[in-house]
Amino acid sequence: MALISQSPRQHASIRSAPTRGGGSMRRRRRRKQIRLLALLAIALGVAGVVWISTGRSSDAGGVEPATIAAERETEPETRVAAATSQAETPRPSRPLPEADRPVSRPSTTRTPDPASVVTMGRSPAAEPTPRQTAPAASEPERRPEQRPQQQSSRPTERSEPAPAQSTIAASPERSTRTTATTSAAPVREMIRQAADMAARNRPVQAREIYNRALLDQRTTHSDRAMIRERMAELNETLIFSPTVVDGDAFTERYRVQSGDTLVRIVNRQKLAIDWRLLQRVNRMDNPSRLRVDQSLKIVRGPFHAVVSKSEFRMDVYAGPVPEVDARGRIVNSGHAPTFIRSFPVGLGEYGSTPVGAWLVRPNNKVINPAWTNPRTNESFAANDPNNPIGDRWIGLDGIDENTRSLSGYGIHGTIEPDSIGREMSMGCIRLLDGDVELIYELLAEGESIVHVVP
């Protein structure tokens, strides 16, 4: 009789039981492994993302490029300076100014452009000279770069800065103006005395003292400008007003006689002025209405002019002809002329107004002149509003070795007010319309001298 344990069904159940249990265990292990792999993959992914984002943020911060730039830019310097032991701290400070000036950077890392080699005559070894002004350059680095320059391409390198030196040497008066800030003590004392005389209503004495200070070579440029302004104010009363001040050597009272006209008064009294000046200073609306025994103020000339090309200014003087030295300064030889007033002028293009002495040509002062352009042959009739020389012409004759052979020059007005203070004429001296009218009345034909100085 078979036992229960020996029945086929029982054996089957017994054999199949461990098989089911073993499969489920394997499945559980695989699931755990998959979960671990998934977690590991997720962890690796997160780590990768963090690493990539950290690398990008460090790139965006600009620290490494700045360091690289510092190393690249300082690399040529370390070659010249023989690899000094300074590290990390000076490097970031050097490239920062250079980064703001990309134009100067090639001079430290590249050879010079062909154009600079041609104009300057420098070799690549001599090119680093511009780095002398760069803030990143240090003194030890400058010295080895300058020495090769002094030995190579010396003639062409010397010739390059020459224009700047010649420009300074060509204007010694301007250079002294910048250094001399105050006039000498005697000049300052004269200015003080003149101001005191003016305050005490003694304009003739004030003008005399101011004039001595103006012609003193120790007076600074700024003080001369101030003196000219003060003297012009005094002369508005002394010369150009109806008032006659006692002691003034250039004005006096005149009693009109029977048959007098302003022209006759000027000629008989030998005033060496234009009769219109008498009309101006006496405030006469109608110059033909003169009364016998009428009191008039008369002004005695001649007047002379000094034109400064560098200052674009005409200074008018009364009395003797001004003596001008080689530098264009008026020499006070004891009996000096008296300054009257200044006028701004326009001059010839490209410096074409000739330097030298001129005489106001006899019978060559014209009101509303007709004029023909010598370059284009275009003609302008009298009273033409488009006439470039305006409504006054004062012809000039050269009287020294520089001007004697020249002709066609003169003083005139302009229809281009903006040309005053500039070089735009064909060589003549231009003035504003109101100024040229007064100059026309002051300068006398055959007597007034005009000096044109540098």
Write the layout of secondary structure elements.
Blueprint: H1 8-60, H2 63-80, H3 90-93, H4 95-99, H5 106-109, H6 114-120, H7 139-151, H8 154-159, H9 162-170, H10 172-179, H11 185-199, H12 203-215, H13 221-238, E1 251-255, H14 262-268, H15 275-281, E2 295-299, E3 303-308, E4 313-318, E5 323-324, E6 330-331, E7 338-344, E8 347-348, E9 356-367, E10 371-372, E11 379-380, E12 392-398, E13 410-412, E14 423-425, E15 429-430, H16 433-442, E16 449-453
Parallel strand pairs: 3-16, 8-14, 13-15
Antiparallel strand pairs: 1-2, 3-4, 4-7, 5-6, 9-12, 9-16, 10-11, 12-13
Helix pairs in contact: 11-12, 12-13, 14-15
Give a quick summary of the entry:
By secondary structure, this protein is of the alpha+beta class. 43% of the residues lie in helices and 16% in strands.
How far is the first residue's CA from the last residue's CA?
153 Å
The CATH C-level class name of the domain at 303-453: Mainly Beta
- The fold-level CATH name of the domain at 303-453 is L,D-transpeptidase catalytic domain-like
- Largest sheet composition: 8 strands, mixed
**Rg computed from alpha carbons, rounded to a whole number of angstroms:** 46 Å
Spatial strand sequence of the major β-sheet: 7-4-3-16-9-12-13-15
Level-2 CATH architecture of the domain at 303-453: Beta Barrel
Which band does the percent of strand residues land in? 15-25%
DSSP summary, beta strand count: 16
* Silhouette: elongated
Number of helices: 16
Mean pLDDT: 75
The secondary structure category is: alpha+beta
Spans of at least 5 consecutive residues with low confidence = 1-20, 56-178
Annotated CATH homologous superfamily of the domain at 303-453? L,D-transpeptidase catalytic domain-like
DSSP helix fraction: 40-55%
